[in-house]
Amino acid sequence: MAVYITTPSPALPPPSNSVGVLGWMRKNLFSSPANSIFTLIGLYILFRTIPPTIDWALFQADWVGTSRDACSGEGACWVFVTVRFQQFMFGFYPPSEYWRVVVAFSLVGALVAWLLIERTPKKGLVGIFTIFCYPVIAYFLFYGGAFGLPVVETYKWGGLMLTLILATIGMFCALPIGIILALGRRSSMPIAKSLSVVFIEFWRGVPLITVLFMSSVMLPIFMPENLQIDKLLRALIGIIFFQSAYMAEVVRGGLQAIPKGQYEAAEALGLSYWKSMFFIILPQALKLVIPGIVNTFIALFKDTTLVLIIGLFDLLAVVQSAFADAKWIGYSVEGYVFVAAIYWVSCFSMSRYSQYLERKLHTGHA
Amino acid sequence: MSNSKKQFWWNNAQHRSLFFQVLLVALLVGFFWFIGSNTLTNLERRGISTGFGFLSQVSGFGIIQHLIPFDETYTFGRTFLVGLLNTLLVSAVGIVFATIIGVVVGVARLSNNWLIAKLAMVYIEIFRNIPLLLQMFFWYFAVLRTLPAPKQSWSAGDVIFLNIRGLYLPEPIFGPGFNFVFWALGLAIVTTLFISRWAKLRQEQTGKQFKTMTVGAGLIFGLPTIVFFLADASLSWNVPALKGFNFRGGITIIPEFTALLTALSIYTGAFIAEVVRSGIMAVNSGQTEAASALGLHKNRILKLVVIPQAMRVIIPQLTSQYLNLVKNSSLATAIGYPDLVAVFAGTTLNQTGQAIEVIAMTMGVYLFLSLSISAFMNWYNKKMMLVER
């Protein structure tokens, strides 16, 4: 009697060399002779760089001590950083007043976190407080001169604190100017439009360093002679103008991405220009360009290092000046790695955050 | 509308726009008048005379790198030229290196080799997120300053030397008859250009292909070589040699240039890599599939289908990266490379005190460079766009 098998026999397992670690390696590392060679070269580079670097930075490194005698010289001498840590953070700010800086930054950190984290209540109120009240509080905390806080002149400000102050104030002031410029560039008024275009293209066409030179050398010539402008303020003015031009282009990108129907609908409702901008167009446009704003902020954050050329002591400048100390000659690599690590962690996390926002805000239209 | 009595003039959109613009102009004029009058009184008080007369005064300082003859007896106007040429030199070489790094890393980032792709990503993420000035300081102070003194120089075959003072290369000295070789090279390049145009036209009309690359390479390398022997041209090398405490002769590449170039190329290269990656990824995979369905070879797909389309996305972004590189080259002043900002807006400004003229000239140069590069790239971009059907 014939036997008919009506059910198919079970599928064979995939060949052992196409699954698991081996299969993954075959597919991703050794898929062709050329790829195998590249992989081996890559592995060799990693082998020659990673272990010595880790050895230098961690295992052979010296961490505790108060002078260079604590360093054996076989690995990194992080003592250089730990001894001068406070100076790297606060510059020449008087140590008894450090708490003011810490409070000011903690406060703004908490406020920004409140605004960024989803599902926190009363965002509007907190936002208004951040925009209008916080700058006043921060001014008195940093500079003093009221409520019994002694005045700390700006030439004593320095280190990471100065870097953060420059970047945040630059950003904070550049955004509204940038929005106005972007609106001006798309305006139907020819004079407003051409002025905006000239302003934007001028600042975008020159390097920041010449802007800083200009603000530090030419502002005193432009102003009445009895008006002395603080060195930090001069740098800030330059940074704000420069940054607002870049911000304007980012915002313009957002304005252009809004479908024409939105403008027409706002007009059809009888809204005036400013009302339609504030209630219809800008909320949508700004939402679209948040990633772009974060990216310009990253660029500004890195660019603040340039103020060392006009003699302000930001983080890099403070570390750079520490190398000149006769007691600590020869530890420049440690100093640069420390500064680079701070910048890298900040910029990398901000860029990841902007990518996350980009995905989250991608709502499909426009 | 005009017959309605209740219509106030400020409710008319045209009148209002006119009013705002007049106000804007008035504010602007007022602002410039304010600045102008302050400037005049301040300059008078400081005893600075305005004008560009200072450009013909003798400068009295030396510059460590000059592409045109320069010493203390030349004028301030000449310092401007020297600085400008140094800026252009480092920008041009930097653009070449940054493009090479960027294309290689950008393609590696898309490699199907996991390790290579990850290495490229690590490169991009590390160098993009560290300030350029810091990288420049690192190369200059932490790397190039640890090179040996001239007496203990590293050398390659006793013709190339590397020490803390710089990199010393042999300098070619062109003997008599060598200008024929240059003429031959020029002729070969022009001929190759004509051949490639002719070959393209012929291919469009008849479909026949011509090996332009082989013929062109043969012409460009072969013709000058033949002429070199025919004209009996001589070429000798001026090899650097240690005399006293320093090397003399040959070409010197100063460490400031090396540090600036390295930092600029690596930093901008990381950005260009991202540009290249986004450009290639922007080409729809259907295009590649359609091309291979037509039976095109892998290289031809890349050359004829992927790259032309990717270029349209890449070029505008690449332009802005090139512009950034040119502008960033001004950081040279921090490590003492004598670029335009260091020499002119730095030393010359300090010596003459002509702040307004000097800063205006410096900014003018960068503005001109930026606007002309972006104009050229816009033109090129339009040319590329026309290919679209």
Topology:
The complex is a heterodimer of chains A (366) and B (389).
Chain A (H helix, E strand, L loop, with lengths): L19 H9 L4 H27 L19 H5 L1 H6 L7 H19 L6 H21 L15 H27 L4 H16 L2 H10 L1 H4 L8 H27 L2 H9 L4 H31 L11 H8 L9 H30 L5
Chain B lengths: L12 H34 L29 H34 L4 H15 L3 H12 L10 E3 L3 E4 L2 E4 L1 E4 L3 H29 L5 H19 L4 E4 L2 E3 L2 E3 L2 E3 L1 H27 L3 H9 L4 H31 L11 H13 L2 H31 L4
Antiparallel strand pairs in B: 1-2, 2-3, 3-8, 4-5, 6-7
In short:
The complex is a heterodimer of chains A (366) and B (389). Helix content of chain A is 68%, strand content 0%.
Provide a descriptive summary of the structure in words.
The complex is a heterodimer of chains A (366) and B (389). Helices cover 68% and strands 0% of the residues of chain A. Chain A is mainly α. Chain A has two domains: 34-93 and 156-366, MetI-like fold, CATH 1.10.3720.10; 94-151. Chain A starts with 19 loop residues before the first helix and ends in a 5-residue tail after the last helix. The mean pLDDT of chain A is 84. Chain B is an alpha+beta fold and 389 residues long. Helices cover 65% and strands 7% of the residues of chain B. In chain B, a hairpin with a 3-residue loop joins β1 (154-156) and β2. In chain B, α2 (76-109) packs across α7, α2 packs antiparallel against α10 and α5 packs antiparallel against α6. The relative contact order of chain B is 0.12. The mean pLDDT of chain B is 83. The interface between A and B is large, with 55 and 51 residues.
Query: Shape of chain B, please?
Result: globular
Oligomer: heterodimer
CATH topology of the largest domain in chain A: MetI-like fold
- The end-to-end distance of chain A, rounded to whole angstroms, is 70 Å
The radius of gyration computed from the alpha-carbon positions of chain B, rounded to a whole number of angstroms, is 28 Å
Tell me, what's the shape of chain A? Answer: extended
Q: Could you tell me the CATH topology label of the domain at 76-162 and 255-385 in chain B.
A: MetI-like fold
DSSP E strands of chain A, number: 0
The radius of gyration computed from the alpha-carbon positions of chain A, rounded to a whole number of angstroms, is: 28 Å
Strand order within the widest beta sheet of chain B: 1-2-3-8
Briefly note the structural class of the backbone of chain A.
Answer: mainly alpha
User: What is the architecture of the largest domain in chain A at the second tier of CATH?
Assistant: Orthogonal Bundle
Broad structural category of chain B = alpha+beta
- What is the average per-residue confidence, as pLDDT of chain B, rounded to a whole number? 83
| Biggest interface, chains and residue tallies | A-B, 55 and 51 residues
Strand content of chain A: under 5%
The counted number of beta strands of chain B is 8
The largest pleated sheet of chain A is described as: none
How many domains would you count in the coordinates of chain A? 2
Average pLDDT confidence of chain A is 84
